[in-house]
Amino acid sequence: MKASCNWIREIAAIDASASEMAERLTRAGLEVEAIERVGEGLDRVVIAEVRGKRAHPTKDKLSLVTVFDGKGTREVVCGAPNVPAPGARVVLVDVGAVLPGGLRIESREVAGVRSEGMLASEKELGIGADHEGILVLGDDDPGKPGARVDEALDLRDEILHLSLTPNRPDCLGHLGLARELSVLFGEPFAPRLTLLPSKLMSVLPEAPRGTAALPVIDSGTGHSGETASLVAPVDGVPMVAPIHIAAPDRCARYVGTVLQRVVVGPSPFWVRHRLHTLGQRSIDRVVDVTNLVLLELGHPIHAFDLDRLDGHRIEVRLAREGERIALLDGTERTLTADDLVIADASKPIALAGVMGGSETAVRPGTKNVLLEVAWFDPRSVRRTSRRHAIHTESSHRFERGVDPSGIPTAQRRALSLLTTLAEAVSSPIGVDAETRRIANATISLDPDYVRSAIGDASISDVESRTILEGLGCAISPGEHSGWRITAPLHRPDLTRAIDLVEEVARVRGYDRVPTALLRPEPRPEAASSRALLVRQVRRAALATGHHEAVNFTFLAASDLTRARVSTEAVALANPLSEERSVMRTSLVPGLLANVSRAERHQRPRGRIFEIGRRYLPGNGPTSVDETASLAIVAFGARDQWLGEGPSVDFYDGKGAIEGVFASLALTVEHRVPANVPGWLHPRRAAEIVLRAGEDARVIGHVGEIHPDVADAHELVTRPVIAELDLEPVLVALAARAPKQVAALPRSMAVVRDLALVVEERVSLSQIAHAIREAGGPLVEDVALFDLYRGKPIAEGHKSFALRVTYRDPEATLTDARVEETQSRVIARTSSELGATLRA
Amino acid sequence: MSDAVQEFEAGLARLGGDVTATFAACIDENALRAENAKLAGPQGELTALLKLMPKLPGDRRKELGQRANQVKQAIQSAFDGRLAAIARAIREAELSGPQLDVSLPGRSVRPGGQHPITKTIEELLDVFASLGFEISESREIELAEYNFGRLGFPPDHPATDMQDSFFVKGRTGSAAGGGGDDAVVLRTHATAIQVHEMLARKPPMAVVASGTVYRRDDDATHSPMFHQIDGFLVDKNVSFAHLKGVLTTFLKRTFGADVPVRFRPSYFPFVEPGGELDIGCTFCRPWVEAGSEAQIARTLACRTCKQTGWIEVLGCGSIHPVVFESCGVDPNEWSGFAWGMGIDRIAMLRHGIRDIRMLYENDIRFLDQL
Ligand SMILES: [Zn+2]
Which of A725, B42, B251, B315 is the most exposed place for a label (fewest CB within 10 A)? Predict the structure, then answer.
């Protein structure tokens, strides 16, 4: 919302500067984001009268214009096509002036003729949008030749750029802002608005039948008779249009007034300028008046071309399913039975409160107008505006709540402007269809509650009362104690006592709220917060050398397919783009995108993890299961002291998982998976088993990415990736007991190396298991220290070099006992797994 | 005198000569040990000499034996002395040798870089925890009833425009024109934690929660997914002044005790009175030498606060009675306050991140710097 400080000052007696207004409004919750100054830099621009005009001797498009600048005449060269006849007033920029756009005017020769200044357009002066020709003042525009243009045309203004919260529709017009500022500056508020039409038709018509109608402009009470000149109506044009509200729950009141003999032409300069500074385009006198009223009172109104209304009548009804309407924005819309429309006898002519139809729009040549001033249900307007994605100045206000008690003011203000600006003749009767009266809210308020809710005992009853009355509340004594408050209809947000407390706090200023401290009671159950357990996992992943990623949780369905993760995804009904239209079912696609990005940016190695949620279709009230997940990826060359090592492989991934769980003090094992997920290499993956006491469960997988998935992502490296369900990990962390420590052995260990040749199919864990079985409790540790394939080992075989640690905790082991045990170990590996001692 | 005695005495005289000088000529440990072996080793001269002992006449044996022993000890002591000297020389050479190139890379497992979002969340949650708040969390895909309805958002009200939401396909709600309490949305704020907690247990309570939230906004300064910390406190006789006190303390602990805090009214359907808290811009620091030419120039050049000197950090207010009522808590007995703050911008401020997109691209060159 943009607001003119001049306009505010016209309405209310406020003498504060723009920056004082802005500061006070912001402090009261009506945020002013910027103050824009307009009409500056025009001190050497004056009004001049055209005295003569002749053709340029050599250039067709130029003319030489003699102007009188209040002191003398001079000749300027002008290229505009619209130089007016002598006697008309234009705007002269003096030699030496610098225009707001930076243009410097100098005395110079234009095609051989000296020009002593320049005749300027609105746009060149920065005071309007018109750049088709020079600014020519109309007869009703003020300013004598020689007068400074900024003073004569009242160009200087400050425009407040407000960012309003949706609870304050009253401030979507200058009247409401003037009222608010009056309260904030402690001034009484008596708005100054000219409300009376100046030209009235003389004959009273019959009251229209079939509608709940009553006259609102009564020649006896509404007009003094001194300002109204009586004019005869045009033959064949009705003086009233019947109005029928068929959807009373959607439209509480609709006032339609006929205006005859309108002059639809360009508006005078002050109207164009005012609209321009507030960011609106000037259309014509009639439409400009509706926009002026909207900006001034915050009440959207509409003008129809009366002669284009079938039956010269108005019906406010719900659209029929599939009914169509062509709108002012050039689009055609298909309506639903939930859209409220204004219709004539045969068709919809406007989307109520949102936008008018093009067929019945006021246009050049329009002679008679029906003016609509109405109150539409905010929810209805909002649904229609959302459904058709049309957001207008009108829908913006109606959906927030327009003052229903402001209808007569808006009507009379519009009539006053139309009869003066568009020279229209107003019917003395508006048809006022009112289906229900919107009641004021009444609220009980105890002034003690104001003090206790704010926490400030120093707020006096008088202060609260003054603030609330200034805002338009009526205060009477409450039934038992306190106050009974009637809230004004322009403040639909005031419905409860707490709303009034906020008003007192807000108008006083939050900087005056005292500060007090309190300390919540600690609750023992709160100790092991899930967020803190997740934090432990994050610490572990960081400590093992992984960067943390935070990826978008929504992605394209094709991302799931490409990564070969579950495509059973939760989809969004209204995504911003296909790229982010489904919720992820796995963190793998996100990490693969991170790897791909790293490769593209010449950084093809690294380790990344992410902790986040996966969203799977499920049960519960939302039909979605959200579970926490941990994913880790390693890609490219392995770190080594100098230079790059060989590429990471499965064991880097397994090591990462082991590292994370070691630092969490939890036990995991890796096993040949029962089912390999589609994103992993079928032969180079393991399932991760979390062991907690007797319980062992598969929580996820780790392995080399499936080569086809790597290709689908155009990866150069072959990342190793793991994903696991964090939920059981968090449970295990919460239940985890402190690590128990065994006494240190007093006896010495005996270490024996053992090189065993086995077939490829035999795993280290099988060998180690056999050794432990055979060696019994004397085997303390079995460690692999070399793995060898190649000559002289036979094809299809490998050699494990193992270091076995033997120890008897009770006694010193004799060589004989070690030898005897080692022989049993060798025999067992041979008989069970076909191992032979390496020669 | 027997021959044996003569030979023995001659041998002792040879061996009892200047062994120290002999050993001193040995320049390293190997040469020293070889020389020592020659003199006192199993194949050495002294051993050979001692083999003569049985041949010595009985009356001389004791005396000659003692002398031989003295010679042996002299050799041993000279050897030990020289060995220590050689070791010392080697140590001295090492200690005065070439300087190591300390600029070569160290060997270590480097910890990874923590993402600015989670780092900021953790640190801010810790401040609230130190003020006595419990840390909690809740679901991201939420019933509209919890995200809007029970928080006092009127149906079809423009207040929901402030938080334009994503709907789940197939669950867009049964209300006319879409929406309604049964619709399923990606939560637009973490505020639903209030509803969940108040439905689950009785006040008093003080809870803070962080989480991912979603709004249909995508431009240079808005990401459709972002992060928030929301918190609330419910107790008896909680006033707006308590809110101001607790949140001001939080901001000063987080951003510095000298940072000014500004409190101004604003609107959120679930609080009343509602407000926003701003802190002085931590980039141009307008409160430092306030009013000086340098300060004014700093602030006028500041993009972070758009020349205002202030940065909005959180929205807050006293919990609206409608929220208590919708959660079965009596607003005449209980009162409280709530707040919510966007984390992304604070993370960007803290880490000097200029472009919001960097937060979610996870470029490894970005992560490397953390
Ligand atoms: Zn700044």
Answer: B42
